[in-house]
Every structure is written in structure tokens, then in C-alpha cells.
Design brief:
The chain has nine helices and no strands. By secondary structure, the protein is an all-alpha fold. It has one domain. Helix 2 packs antiparallel against helix 8. It is rod-shaped, with a radius of gyration of 27 Å. The chain starts with a helix and ends with a helix.
């Protein structure tokens, strides 16, 4: 492994740094974006039970807000539960934008890594080729060691850049899809709560 790094020249280090950051983001997002943590099952049912039993106080609202991203959205709507439906929806939409922003955290960084890693590899290729041609100008074509050094730097950085960029891009697209799916689930749960509350009032 050390030989590969040495063969890649100095441009291999920014690519290695990108790979470390990408790996950390992927691991963190896998943990954070689990559906059971974002959209816990039965939360709307629990909230409805508290309302029916008259137990929805400030303490439970705070607990709900800190429970999960869905809980934060539901709590925003419940604060305005004595207002009309439009007011509840507006407060839920405002909270949803904050929640979605937190769900998308670090994804732009991951997408940036997917874009710049091949460019770093290309830059390494260019510097490797420059070094190789400079060596040819100094010692001619008679020393294959000098030529292979520049060529290995060019090839290694290209390969390393693609090796980092491809998984980063795949996981970037995957997490984008996960966020979209979770957002839809939270919207459905929030609308379900609004319908339950206002349906009960009408009755």
C-alpha cells in the first residue's frame, strides 16, 4: 500500500483525504437516515392518544420535538392545533424545511468529492506526464526508470481519483433517494395528524 502511495506522487494525498471524508460521511448518513429513527412507527397514533386523554402538555410536546425529525414536524403543528388547518400546515411546512435541511447534511460535500476526485486524478496525470517529459529532456530515452516513475504517477492518480469518485457518486445518489422517501413519509404522517385533528373537530 505504501508503495502505491509513493508511486502516486504528492497528488495522491488530496485524493486520500477525499476518500477519508467520503467514508466518514457515508457511515454517518447510513446511521442517521435509518427510517426507524427518522419516521418512528406509531408516533401519530401516540400523539392522538395523548390528545384524546388530555395529556398533551408542554413536557410531552418537548419530548415529541426531541424524539425524531418526524416528532419535530408534528410538534410544530400541534403548537398551533387550536388554529385553523392552514395555520397548522404552514407551521408544519416551516418545520419540514428545517428537518429536510438536516437530513441532507453533508450530502453536498459528498457530491463535491464525487466531482473533484477525478479532477484531482487528472491533475496528477498531468503533473506525472510533465515530470516524465522533463526527465526525457534531461536524460533522454535511455533511462526507463525515470520514465516509469512519471508514468506510474500519472496512472495511479487517475485510478485513485476514479476509485474515490465512483462510490462517492453512487452513495450521493442513494442518499438523495433516501431523503426524498423519508420526506414523503413524514409529509404523509403530518397530513394524517391534521386530518385526524380537524376531522374530530368537525364531528
Amino acid at each position: 500500500m505504501l508503495e502505491i502511495i509513493k508511486a502516486g506522487g504528492w497528488m495522491i494525498w488530496p485524493i486520500i483525504l477525499c476518500s477519508i471524508i467520503a467514508t466518514a460521511i457515508i457511515g454517518e448518513r447510513f446511521w442517521t437516515l435509518q427510517k426507524k429513527y427518522v419516521v418512528p412507527k406509531g408516533l401519530v397514533t401516540q400523539v392522538w392518544r395523548w390528545i384524546k386523554e388530555g395529556k398533551l402538555d408542554k413536557k410531552r410536546l418537548n419530548a415529541l420535538r426531541n424524539n425524531s425529525p418526524l416528532g419535530k414536524i408534528l410538534a410544530a403543528g400541534l403548537v398551533n392545533r387550536y388554529h385553523d388547518r392552514d395555520m397548522m400546515k404552514a407551521s408544519i411546512e416551516e418545520a419540514s424545511s428545517q428537518v429536510i435541511y438536516s437530513l441532507e447534511r453533508y450530502l453536498n460535500t459528498l457530491g463535491t468529492i464525487a466531482e473533484i476526485a477525478p479532477l484531482l486524478g487528472l491533475l496528477g496525470t498531468v503533473t506525472g506526464m510533465i515530470r516524465m517529459f522533463a526527465a526525457i529532456g534531461e536524460v533522454g530515452l535511455g533511462n526507463p526508470t525515470v520514465l516509469s516513475s512519471g508514468l506510474s504517477e500519472a496512472l495511479m492518480t487517475t485510478a485513485a481519483g476514479l476509485f474515490v469518485a465512483i462510490p462517492a457518486f453512487v452513495f450521493y445518489r442513494y442518499f438523495r433517494g433516501v431523503v426524498d422517501e423519508l420526506t414523503l413519509s413524514m409529509e404523509q404522517e403530518a397530513l394524517k395528524m391534521i386530518d385526524v385533528l380537524h376531522g374530530d373537530r368537525e364531528q
